[in-house]
Every structure is written in structure tokens, then in C-alpha cells.
Amino acid sequence: MENILEVNDLKVSFNTFAGEVQAVRGVNFHVKKGETLAIVGESGSGKSVTTQSIMRLIPMPPGEIKGGEILFEGTDLVKKSDKQMEKVRGKDIAMIFQDPMTSLNPTMKIGRQIMESMIKHRKIAKTDAKKRAIELLDLVGIPKPEQRVDQYPHEFSGGMRQRAMIAVALASDPKLLIADEPTTALDVTIQAQILELLKDIQKKTNTSIIFITHDLGVVANVADRVAVMYGGKIVETGSVDEVFYNPQHPYTWGLLASMPSLDAEEGELQAIPGSPPDLTNPPKGDAFAARNSYAMKVDFEMEPPMFKVSDTHYAATWLLHEDAPKVEPPAVVRKRIEHFKEKAGER
Amino acid sequence: MLKYIGKRLLYMVLTLWVIVTVTFFLMRAAPGSPFSGEKELPPAIQANLEAYYGLDKSLFMQYVDYLISVVKWDFGPSLKYKGQSVNDLISEGFPVSFALGMEAIFLALALGVLLGAVAALRHNKWQDYTAMIIAVLGISVPSFIMASGLQYVLAIKWSVLPVARWESFAHTILPALALASTPMAFIARLTRSSMLEVIGNDYIKTAKSKGLNSTEITVRHTIRNAMMPVVSYMGPLISAILTGSFVIEKIFGIPGLGMHFVTSITNRDYSVIMGVTVFFSVLLLVSILLVDIAYSLIDPRIKLADKKGE
């Protein structure tokens, strides 16, 4: 399958009074047509900055794309002017934001907010745009769309607003949809509905999706492939099965262990000790070394390259070097993996 | 909506009553009388005058008389301007002050929003600093200095506009500018700060992610959401400006209503004081009601209906 998006060695920094914050430090990934890539990581790992750079939504200054390229269907978005980017935003790439309570304009009717990008990019008449807006509201599962289209955001509930936001994003049939933690601000039952909806829409429209989250439970549900980000870098990438059943990076182990689970027998919630690295002054070796109980001397001195695990599975940890001692994932993680496999088997 | 307005009108009557009562007794508590001058009047004449204007009755009876005249909207004769009723004074002065005031409000709003929007969109750039210097000047330079400055430069040095008097449209430009400068500066600052707040909102990012350009984002998404503080400032501003400014009208020799606010008090011209106070209050109350209605038109989240259903 053809790559719709290819990000090569992307570096993004913010120039602050405290110095240059290197939020994204050389990220590589790609998204194929019709697939869902999940980018996972804790707060401050650079996942939102990465995706907002793709749409060039980072305020510049203080933000700055220091290097690398973002190839969308072969053309480099980094080199485009602001005027040219306006033709990409909303038309080819659309975005769904985290908080549906604040990401819709409170003084504009939902219908108009959906129609805006259609009228702008597709140059269609207002009446046709409205018809399409009603269809979209219907598609995202909003009952009585003919009435809802003339309502304001405050007349919608949180879950409904996120559905409306998805309709806004889908308005011009984007080829790539970026969902920046679209379920984080919603409660669990609504989360499941929104995830189902996104999967459903992808089936119907064959859109590629980049799904940002810090919730591995969500990833297992929606993604084809996963990229785990830490300290402004991707530390492990692979298919969902590979990352869930055969995780290699100690940070991925930590994430898996810290997943809250209803049917796990251990009562205590596992946490990764320590706090994320200071990106004004990034550590010399592996950024995760300071919090890593498996860290070796080399981890503090040299950055690990991406070691190949399989054709699609890579991880940046010295543990995969041939000279490194064989280390098994901790017991909690092994138990979790067994558990995933069991559940997968049941299905 | 109609029910809401009806209820508001009822409250307005109540508010007006409080204002009338407080003004009446405060005015009477002040020493002096309309007939006390340099030379003392013979007691007989004084008594006759007081009887003529009803000032010999008990204070309470005078108060009742006054309430009745307010209801009839007839404020009686002026105690100082012989042969003129307060209603005459208002109907002569108000149209002039109204025309001047409307022009000033239009200028203040148009220039203020423009300056504020430019400052917000070019935040921390030279356009922002320039707009804010103009705003600070507008707020801190008193209107009489602004007025004389404008007269000196535009009328005397360059002779492009008439210096004073109230005759043609050209005569209105300088006083309107002088009157507008402070509210214009205030509106500019309000617009700037509230636009900066709105620009930081998520829905502006959403608008940008749809591929809208910055003009479309500002016009469709930012301005409307940023207008609330400006609208609430408009209520008191409209009533204050429409009833005229003592200083500006004095400087430009404009026969407006503004002078009566000041001279009636030094004259102890009881009926004029009460008349202009009631008139101003009614105007203020109406413009506040209009502002509240404007709120609900701008922001659909604000509902004017009664909360009966709860």
C-alpha cells in the first residue's frame, strides 16, 4: 500500500525565555492509505506537537520546525507557504481536537461550522452545503439532523459535540484525519461510541487516521500500527499485535504495566517512576534511561539506534544489541501479555 | 421574550422611583434656594414666589406633587429661566446633544473596534504599540484639552473646519471627535484584551484547521465572541454621550442639554435638576435594557426568558 504521509527526521523546537525546548527531536513515521496509526506517549512526549506540525498549526514564533520533512502525497508540507497550507488544511488533512466543549465556536450554528470548510474548499452553493451538513450529522449518528443543524453547540451534550466535531472534520472528505486525544475529555461509555464511530467512518470513506492517545486500551481498539513516543522521539513502532504481544522497549513495558484493567487480579495500579525528561536540556543517552530499571551504562552515554525486530517492528533500546544481556519483560507485563492473548483468543 | 421585556419595564419603573426619591431629598438637603441671590429678596416677594412654585407646601406634599408630575411627564416651569418649562429645555437641547452624541458613538465604536482588533491581531508588534499609545492618549488626555487642541490645529492653523457653533455638518466634526476620543480609546482597549482572550481559544484553532485564512477567522469567529465586554460598556456610554457633555458643549458653543446638568445645580433650579435627572435615568435604563437584548442576539447561550420551567 502507498504511503499517504511520510515524516522524516522531523525536529520541532519552541524558543522560550528558559531556552530552546526541543519538543520533537527527529521523528520518523509513515501512514498508509486507509490505515490507522496510533501515536502513544505520556504528556509532554511530543505527540501533539508532531501532529500539529503536520498541519502547521504550531504558533510560530515561538515554535519552529528545525529540520526534517513532512511528505504528504509526496509534497513537502514544511516548504509550503502559509497561503498554500490553507489549501491543505481542512481539505486534505483535517483534525479533531481533544475537548469538544471548547473546540466549537459557541456563537455559530453547528451547521455553519460544518459548511465552512466545504464552501471554502469545494466551492459549493450554500444550500447544497447545508444538505451535505445534514447528511454528515446523520453519518456521525446525531438524531434529527435537520433540526440539529440549526442549533448552537451549547444545545449539544459533550459526546454529541465530539460527533459534530467529527462531522466538521469530515466535511471536505479529507484523505488524512488527525484525532488528537478525541476521547480523553469524554466519559467511558461515550468514548467507546466515538471509537466505534471513527472505525465505522474509516470503513466507509477509507480515510487514513492518525490517532493520538495516552490510553493503550484505546489503541488496541482502533489502531493498525502503533508508534510509542518518549521525550520527543519514537522509541518503538510496530503493528498492534507486535507492540502488545512482543514489546521490546522498557518504556512500552512501563506503559503496558500501567494500564488500568478491570479483570487484572493485582489490586495496585503500576506507575512508571520518575518524571519526563527536561527537553530544554535533553539527556545525552537514551532519554528514558533515568527512569529505566534495566538501564545499562551505555544507555547514559549513547543514544540507541532503532533496532530491527521484524520487518515492521523496530525499537530504540540497547537491550536489543547483540552484546546486551537477555532481559525478559517484568512479570506484570508478561502476565498482561498472556491476558491479551487469551482475550484475543476468545474473540 | 415579550414577557421578559414587560418584567424589565416594571423593574425600570421601580428603579426610576428610587432615583426620583433619592434625588428629591438629596437636593432638598442641600442648603440654599433658587431665590437666594446676592441681594436678599423682601420677605413678601419671597413668600409669593414660593407660593407660586408650590414651595410653601410641606416637603412631603411637594414630593407627592413631584411624583405626579413625573408620571404625567410634565416637569413644570423652570425656576430660573422665566417663562420656560423644563420640557421645553429638554426638547430644545436634546435633539442637538443626540445628533452630536450619535456621531461620537459611531466614531468611537468604529475606530475603537478597528484599533483594538488591529492591536490584537498584531500582538506585540509595532501596530499593537501604536494602537495602544493612541488608546492611552485618548484615555489620559481630558476632553477639553483634546477639544482645544483640535480647534487650534484643524480650525485655526489649517482652517479646514469651523472652530465652533452649531450650524452645518462640518461644525459637528470637531466636537464629535473630541467627545469620542475617550470612549474610543476605552473600546480599543476592551476589544484588544477580549480578542486576545478569544484568539487563545480552541475553536480558533479549529477554524484554522479548516483552512480558513486569518481574515475569515477574525470576521467569522473572533470579533463576535470578543464583542461582549464592548456591548456592556455601550449601555452607560450611550446614555452619557447622548445627553450631552457640559465641557464639550461649552467649548464649541453648542446649544445642547449638557449645560443644564451643571448650571441647574448651582442655580438650585429644582425643577430642572429633577427633570434632567429623570430624563437621564430613563435613557440609561432603556439603553441597559437594549444592551441586554443585544447580548442575547450576539451570544445564543444567553437566554432572556424567565426561568419558570425550573
Structure notes:
The complex is a heterodimer of chains A (347) and B (310). Chain A has helices at 47-54, 82-88, 110-122, 126-139, 145-148, 158-170, 188-205, 216-222, 240-245, 250-257, 331-346; strands spanning 3-16, 19-32, 36-40, 63-72, 75-76, 93-96, 176-180, 208-213, 225-230, 233-239, 307-308, 314-315. Chain A has 347 residues and is of the alpha/beta class. In chain A, strand 9 (225-230) and strand 10 (233-239) form a beta hairpin. In chain A, helix 3 (110-122) runs parallel beside helix 6 (158-170). Chain B is mostly helical. Chain B has a domain at 93-298: MetI-like fold (Orthogonal Bundle), CATH 1.10.3720.10. In chain B, helix 1 runs antiparallel to helix 13 (270-298), helix 5 (126-140) crosses helix 7 (169-199) and helix 12 runs antiparallel to helix 13 (270-298). Chain B starts with a helix and ends in a 12-residue tail after the last helix. Mean pLDDT of chain B is 85; it is low at 306-310. Chain A binds chain B through residues 55, 57, 83, 85-91, 94-95, 97, 99, 102-108, 113, 116-117, 120-121, 152, 154, 165, 168, 171, and chain B through 201-203, 205-213, 216, 220-221, 224-225, 298-301. Chain B: It is a multi-pass membrane protein. Chain B: This is Peptide ABC transporter permease. Chain B: Its main location: membrane. Chain B: It is found in: Cell membrane.
Shape of chain B: flat
Q: Please give the largest β-sheet of chain B.
A: none
Largest sheet of chain A: 8 strands, mixed
What is the chains' assembly state?
heterodimer
CATH class of the domain at 93-298 in chain B: Mainly Alpha
